[in-house]
Design a protein that fits this description.
By secondary structure, this protein is an alpha+beta fold. The chain is built from 17 helices and 17 strands.
Length: 463
């Protein structure tokens, strides 16, 4: 999967650069990936990036005009035209179709600019004048950053395998994490499957100083959304319509072709119904089986026709079955073992979708946001007779951990957004992103903030 890689260390420049190159090579899964490196041996910063060609982050590294601040960024940001006009009024030069304008937000606001970002991302900002390095990610933690802090270096990467590549001492499974994975289908509490490898928490901004000190900060707290006043039902509905109409154009603004991944659900129909589309501008497609049309295909075909867009079915066909071993092994490797062979269809179908358009617009997470659907993160321990007694104790620990997480969460939507989605739902996202750029408007900051004010959220309780 594309992403960022880095080492913060005062060890020899040659060693750090060699290690950085090996980390990048471990993540170059496709021929259409682009990569590069940035090094600053005076600050001990060694960073690399991998991205899809022509994507929002295909402009790294980004420098300011004075060339004393540099940004390494992966992901996207969805903003309004007014921001670009503001930056131009300050005489900044940038390409609004890519991430080049983000460095100017930092110049205007400092690291607080992260509070204004809207999307899934991770990045490294190096302020040479200040002698500071900022490592950060999006508020949900969707763009994962695995990290390992040794006695004399800090290593980070969008894929855990890059850390294991250069730090053989990490090539050991964490038994507690394995117990959680077998019980919950994910690892909890920002740990990883690998011993001494952790995940950067969501909304993190970690600051490395010239003297080697590290300060760990968080730039967003869900309490800001939780403590908003409720809206009356009638007013809320009007506000929801206005917000969706405002939000959607952000996600269709790009220099690349967008394909719309249609299903039969409400989530994609809301997108189609509220977006003014020129005929035949956005090719639509639906994932389908080999033998007959499923309901998703039947409904999606009608929706595309009603909106005057083309539609085709991408089949999970004999070609996939004939090459199942290849896709199964690739899926497990790309996802660092978090997605098993049952998810191998994701790589195959999204590779077909990429041939239609490099950006895939989806209705992902619409159920969680619009209808408050959640509670799928649960601990279901496997049959203990199938496993060694050394791992069985961790199955019960997983049950206790899940119970504690639910008990300590004050708001069900916060649990869904900041725990369930980034921990449990991230595996499929990683598989998709290895082939194309997935988008969904349902994690937009404005829309999510509004949904916390929904009158029916007041009645939601934990099971």
């Amino acid at each position: 999967m594309p992403g960022i890689i880095g080492i913060i260390s005062n060890k020899s420049k040659e060693k750090n650069e060699n290690d950085l190159q090996r980390m990048i090579e471990s993540m170059m899964h496709e021929s259409f990936y682009k990569s590069g490196i940035y090094t600053n041996d005076q600050l001990g910063a060694y960073a690399g990036w991998i991205c899809h060609e022509g994507s929002f982050s295909d402009c790294m590294p980004v420098w300011n005009e004075k060339r004393n601040i540099v940004l390494i960024y992966f992901g996207e940001n969805f903003t309004d035209i007014e921001l670009f006009n503001h930056l131009k009024s300050k005489n900044h030069k940038f390409d609004k179709s890519n991430a080049s304008y983000l460095i100017h937000l930092y110049e205007e606001k400092g690291i607080d600019f992260l509070q204004d970002l809207n999307g899934w991302f991770c990045g490294l900002m190096v302020d040479i004048t200040e002698g500071k390095i900022y490592l950060f990610n999006d508020r949900y933690g969707m763009q994962r950053i695995f990290y390992y802090q040794s006695r004399d270096a800090f290593y980070f990467s969008s894929e855990a395998k890059a850390l294991l590549k250069i730090c053989p001492e990490l090539r050991e499974i964490d038994m507690k994490s394995l117990g959680e994975f077998l019980s919950c289908n994910c690892v909890l509490e920002n740990r990883s499957l690998f011993k001494n490898v952790s995940l950067l928490p969501g909304a993190a901004v970690w600051i490395f100083q010239r003297d080697g000190s590290l300060t760990k900060k968080c730039y967003f707290n869900p309490n800001i959304w939780e403590n908003q006043p409720w809206l009356e039902k009638e007013f809320f509905y009007e506000k929801l319509k206005d917000t969706i109409s405002k939000v959607l154009p952000r996600y269709f603004r790009t220099s690349q072709q967008i394909g719309i991944s249609l299903t039969g659900s409400l989530d994609t129909r809301v997108i189609m119904a509220n977006m003014d589309m020129q005929a035949d501008k956005y090719p639509c497609y639906t994932f389908g089986g080999m033998y007959r049309d499923c309901n998703d295909v039947k409904v999606a075909r009608k929706v595309a026709d009603a909106c005057h867009q083309t539609h085709q079915v991408l089949h999970l066909d004999q070609q996939f079955l004939s090459n199942f071993q290849k896709y199964a092994e690739k899926t497990v490797y790309i996802t660092d073992g978090y997605f098993d062979v049952s998810g191998s269809y994701e790589v195959y179908l999204n590779s077909l979708a990429r041939e239609i358009a490099p950006i895939r617009m989806t209705g992902n997470y619409g159920g969680e946001i619009l209808r408050g659907i959640g509670g799928t993160l649960k601990a279901t321990p496997p049959n203990e007779k199938l496993f060694h007694h050394d791992i069985n104790i961790h199955f019960q620990n997983a049950v206790n951990t899940i119970a504690g997480l639910y008990k300590s969460s004050d708001h069900p939507m916060t649990f869904n957004l900041f725990k369930e989605i980034p921990w449990l739902r991230n595996h499929g996202f990683v598989s998709e992103q290895s082939q194309l750029t997935p988008r969904t408007p349902y994690l937009d900051n404005d829309l999510v903030a509004l949904m916390y004010r929904a009158p029916w959220m007041l009645g939601m309780i934990w099971n």
